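Protocol step 4 of 6.
Sequence for m7GpppX diphosphatase (Sinanodonta woodiana) entered exactly as in the expression construct, tag removed. Do not edit the line below.
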Amino acid sequence: MAASEADHAVAAKKRKLEEGDTIECLQSPLKSFKGFSLEKVLCENAKSKSLFVLGQFEGSDDKAVVLLEKMPFSSERATHYVCSDTSLKETLKNDIYGTYDAFIPVQENAVKATVIYPATEKHITKYTDQERFVVTETAELYKNITLPYLEEKEFSVQWVYNILEKKKESERIVFEDPDPETGFILLPDMKWDRKNINTLYLQAIVHKHGIKSLRDLNGTHLPLLRNILENGSAAIKEKFDVPRSKLNIFFHYLPSYNHLHVHFMHVNNETHGFSHLLTDVIQNIELKEDYYQWKTLTYAIREMDELYKRFKEADHL
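Step 5 output, structure tokens:
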């Protein structure tokens, strides 16, 4: 693994601990994983070609979570993959078809490493492989179970405010509308390597505070939503030459953090389940201003989540 990948990932992760915990991370970029002791594998995903592990750095009692993800191929580097430096080991031969294990040059085989340190129990839980369950959340269940849970936990989003106030990551901003009511900041998601345009992934984070999720949106927010759709798409077209017709623009519900944000993803990228397209959200609110205050919403939660336990105790799972 290239050291620069680990360095970039560690620096990037300084701004976001799971659920916004404001714990100090590694103060210096890592040069290698020397001194790291593996405790256990948290999750292995063959589809995403990723591996999440738990361990500790030498001389520290704090836990660390390391996320390892295979980097996508680049068409510009194709000649470096199929070259004399790539060794082959045959695994199957049938008529004109041959299957091989290919060992490409090490510099072409980078792995993205994200280091979360110190890692809390919430981080460990998040990245541990778990069973998932589908929740059908009515307006009443939101009011009686989900909302009290969110208000009790009050997960910090200080890292979001750091971005909005340009205390952190200002160099990564692609576009900003500074209006306090309808404005937002657009910047690349950490999942995007900014090399492969087919995996393009950005987030628009609104300047207005107090909007946790889709459930809070109503007719007063239509100017904000339309602004994100129009100017976010235009900025991506100008910066990356990707038109709106090539973009999936959506909300997650439940969101990963409780400050309104919109995802912009290339249509060739893998889409995520239980998402809500921004154009649909706008139309729904145009039809009924309080649409998301009464709409039944369906999403998945994991068995180790506190919210799962609350739905289970209320006999709704």
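Step 6, annotate. The chain has three domains: 1-71+110-128, 79-105, 130-313.
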